[in-house]
Every structure is written in C-alpha cells, then in structure tokens.
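On clarity, I found the account of how folds are encoded harder to follow than it need be. Since the whole study asks how a given chain folds, the encoding of that fold should be made plain. For illustration, here is how one protein appears when written out as sequence plus structure tokens:
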Amino acid sequence: MIEVEKTALLDLLLVKPTIFADHRGTFLDIYHLDGYLENGVDVQFVRDAISTSTKDVLRGIHYDDKTWKLIQCLHGKIYFVVVDMRQESPTYLQWESFTLTDQDRLQVLVPPQFGNGHLVLSDQCIFHYKMSEYYDPAEEKILKWDDPRANIDWPIANPILSAKDSLGYNPDLQEKK
C-alpha cells in the first residue's frame, strides 16, 4: 500500500509506503508494481543501485534525458534535492528538497530531465535507487551543486565532493550563441 503526493515541481512525486510495525520491528514493501499502477505510476524499472556515504558527503546533481529514478534512504538521514532541468518547463531550474530517513521510508519518484543530489546528514547512509534505464556515462549530465542559477539552499558550506561533482558538466546550461 502506498500513498502518492504531488510536489511543487510539476511531475515530481513523493511516495509514502505503508509501514507495518509491531514488537518485532517494521515491515514495508519498498516497491510493489500494483500499488504504483493503482496510483498512475507506470514505469518499468531495470536496475537497482545502492551507494554508501558518510556525513557531509554530497553526491550529485546528476540526471539524463530518459531515466526515471525511485529514490529512498535505507539507513541514516539525507537531504535530498531535485532540480527541474527541462528548459520548456514552467519550473525550470527550480528545486525542491526532502529529508529522507530510514525511519520515515519516504520515496521520491524523479522523472527524466530532473537532476537529483543528496547530502548525508547522519554519520553514515545507505542510498537506494531504482532506475528505468541502464547507466550510460555518455548521457549523464551534472549540475554543479552550488550553481547560482539554481541557487539551492544546502545546509552545508563545504561538502565532501567527487572530482566530477565539484566541476559539474551540463551542456544544456552552456551559453547559446
């Protein structure tokens, strides 16, 4: 059982799975095809991936033109940001953030052409995402985490970054001549 909510960004969805709890712990479906179909989400996923990180690591903001991603935090706490990168969209370069934890089990369904990144707020985190396409590095685009055009309000001034995330590469944002 899931509940799906629209967000401030057109086509971005927040998913709330039902958590069953008793004296033994908790149980939930992190993905149930019928539940998604009943809520109008008809995306075929082909890949699952997990990343682990420590406090103050910022990964992203990554995207491509065709991949849907279903995001969740399996362990720890993250500040998750999504940026609308569709130039024709009324919410182009606008962003929305979510705090995702292993306690609330919230999920975010990120459409193609939406960049996403996360900052680890806990000592460690396990970040899980389902993808509708196989990863193709030639298709990946990166919005620099502190790009002034998006003006994202991150709760950190000096995150731990990979080399590619510190530089960013986004041909869609290059000056047009």
